[in-house]
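Technical annex, item 7. During the second reporting period the consortium partners agreed on a shared format for inverse folding records so that results from different sites could be compared directly. Each record opens with the tokenized structure and is followed by the designed sequence. A conforming record, contributed by the partner at site C, is shown below for reference.
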């Protein structure tokens, strides 16, 4: 399988990385974390100027018409800089859900242009992700209502839903529990017709989170490498100690093994692979493990000061902890993967999983 990205994809990733290096520096993140909303309209506007809000919107609605493979690169950059915004929830996951309704669907025709221009914030509520990011500030909540026939799709505006703020260890994860009573007037697609759409959305959202976790892991590794190259003990930089090298080599290895799994899952979502659920769960587990390992090893080489507010590591570590349970925790994805691997006639081995 060829995971080589084309020149346009690499150029877009590099331009976004250069932009976020300046606009999402750690000192900026700290300032935004401490605001009441935890969001920066100025940063969101600049992200829209870079075209990130328009990536998954069809050209007919003013977008760039890009898809899952392109986002597998972008989500890593969003994770690497831990942007204080649930941008990809709106611009990627919600936008793709609306696209699947059809470009002429009234809901898609109304909201996709607003997503492209960066003037709308959407939130997604799903049984696998009951604590909804940005529900308090969302212009629209796409809600999966459980019924006897499966999940139905409802579109809830601020007047039809109430949200209760919930605390998060990550200062930029503004979560809420929803209280709403969906009705025929809010229903967009009934169950069971909406079930397949929600299944795809769940997998896409998990890949979105997995990409951010890989980016977070890489950032924590880079921070740790920089730290051990400067910190001295017994007259030597601690990066010269064999035990420290082993810690960081372990993180680097896990990241390198996680990336192809992420790309395979993104491709599975893009093409509708029949083994999509298993591939996505594999990616979420491996990418989360890479990020958790990066945080744990980072703390070991930083010492207790790595937890303190003044050290950048803590921001990325907290984001990794928070995203680890988003869109399916470890138990959820282990169960899905086990069901796929232990099923009768399950295709196993490299020829089956990587073709």
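Designed sequence (site C submission):
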């Amino acid at each position: 399988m060829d995971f080589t990205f084309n020149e346009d994809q690499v150029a877009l990733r590099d331009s976004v990385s250069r932009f976020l290096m300046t606009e999402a520096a750690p000192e900026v993140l700290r300032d935004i974390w401490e605001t009441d909303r935890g969001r920066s309209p100025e940063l969101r506007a600049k992200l829209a100027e870079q075209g990130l809000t328009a990536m998954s919107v069809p050209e007919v609605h003013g977008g760039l018409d890009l898809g899952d493979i392109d986002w597998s690169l972008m989500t890593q950059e969003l994770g690497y800089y831990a942007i204080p915004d649930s941008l990809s929830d709106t611009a990627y996951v919600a936008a793709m859900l609306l696209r699947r309704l059809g470009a002429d669907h009234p809901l898609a025709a109304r909201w996709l242009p607003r997503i492209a221009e960066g003037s709308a914030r959407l939130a997604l509520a799903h049984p696998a992700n009951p604590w909804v990011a940005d529900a308090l500030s969302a212009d629209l909540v796409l809600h999966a209502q459980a019924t006897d026939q499966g999940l139905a799709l409802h579109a809830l505006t601020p007047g039809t839903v109430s949200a209760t703020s919930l605390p998060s260890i990550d200062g930029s994860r503004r979560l809420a529990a929803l209280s709403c009573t969906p009705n025929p007037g809010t229903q967009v697609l009934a169950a069971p017709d909406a079930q397949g759409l929600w299944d795809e959305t769940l997998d896409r959202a998990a890949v979105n989170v997995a990409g951010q976790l890989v980016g977070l892991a890489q950032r924590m590794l880079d921070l740790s490498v920089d730290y051990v190259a400067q910190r001295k003990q017994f007259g030597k930089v601690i990066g010269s100690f064999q035990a420290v090298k082993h810690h960081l080599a372990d993180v680097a290895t896990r990241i390198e093994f996680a990336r192809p799994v992420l790309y395979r899952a993104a491709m599975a979502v893009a093409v509708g692979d029949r083994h999509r659920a298993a591939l996505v769960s594999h990616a979420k587990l491996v990418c989360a493990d890479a990020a958790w390992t990066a945080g744990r090893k980072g703390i070991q080489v930083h010492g207790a000061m790595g937890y303190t507010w003044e050290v950048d590591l803590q921001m990325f570590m907290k984001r990794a902890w928070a995203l680890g349970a988003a869109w399916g925790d470890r138990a959820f994805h282990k169960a899905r993967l086990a069901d796929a691997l232990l099923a009768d006639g399950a295709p196993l081995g490299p020829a089956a999983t990587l073709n």
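The longest strand covers residues 140-147. The beta strands are 122-125, 132-133, 140-147, 150-156, 161-166, 175-180, 187-189, 232-233, 236-237. All partners now use this format for quarterly exchanges.
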